Amino acid sequence: MQNQSPHALVLSHVAFEDLGSLELPLQERGFQIESVLAAEAQFPLPQAANCDLLIVLGGPIGVYDQQDYPFLIDEIALIAQRLAARKPTLGICLGAQMMAAALGARVYPGQQGAEIGWFPLQAAPESETPAWFAPLLADGLSVFHWHGDTFDLPPGAQRLAKTDRYENQAFTVDQFALGLQFHPEVSAEELESWYVGHACELHQKGIDVVSLRNSAQLHSSKLQKAAGRFWKLWLDSIL
């Protein structure tokens, strides 16, 4: 009897913020990938308890917008149950913020303004960097950020990285859960959809699309190589 293929459940919030460079490593490991748009989901999702990996992606809303977007209440509850069961969970940007909230941490608008663009990570000085995270801390590497909110470090979590602007850029909980405030999954080509989808925000904040595009051309290739190594090492560590 053949072993059943591993199952990854992906919760997304806008169509253009997808798995990106994580998709191929999952496929190479034989994952069946199920994608669910959270705003249209019928919570609770029974498959979330039993899947081999839960992935919660980014989006332009905030954890504290639950009155306007009540599905967030159910989504955070689902994440909390998953984390309480200590099952492999990944959150990117909004996903990491919901993981922090599910673990009891405060999520709030950042006091240093929106962090949008390409900036390097710095290792958290109080923590030993896991080998699987090291590719994202390579000299000369910048990763992509797009967030206005930040969060306190959840109780029991280990901080992995920071930037000059915000202290909490990545955290892990006992190797089974990983929250990333930044976006290691993106490519220069895929970001073109982001510039359109978030055009109002860019205009409101006075951020130049041409400058973002030029920066992506400079940094994207190196990030994709580093992210490819990171994803493979991280998946090896949790599966």
| Distinct helical segment count | 7
The shape, in one word, is globular
Helix/strand structural class:
alpha/beta
The whole-angstrom Rg is: 17 Å
Features:
239 residues, two-stranded antiparallel ribbon, 7 helices, Rossmann fold, 21% strand, eight-stranded mixed beta sheet, globular, alpha/beta, 12 strands
Provide an overview of this structure.
- The protein has helices at 23-28, 47-50, 71-84, 94-102, 188-197, 199-205, 209-238; strands at residues 7-12, 32-37, 53-56, 89-92, 107-109, 115-119, 122-123, 143-147, 149-151, 158-162, 170-173, 177-180.
- The chain has 239 residues and is of the alpha/beta class.
- It has a single domain, classed as Rossmann fold (3-Layer(aba) Sandwich).
- The strands form three sheets. Strands 2-1-3-4-12-11-10-7 form an eight-stranded mixed beta sheet, covered by helices on one side. A two-stranded antiparallel sheet has the order 5-9.
- It is globular.
- The two termini are 21 Å apart.
- The model has no long low-confidence stretch (mean pLDDT 97).
Can you summarize this structure?
The chain has 239 residues and is of the alpha/beta class. Helix content is 33%, strand content 21%.
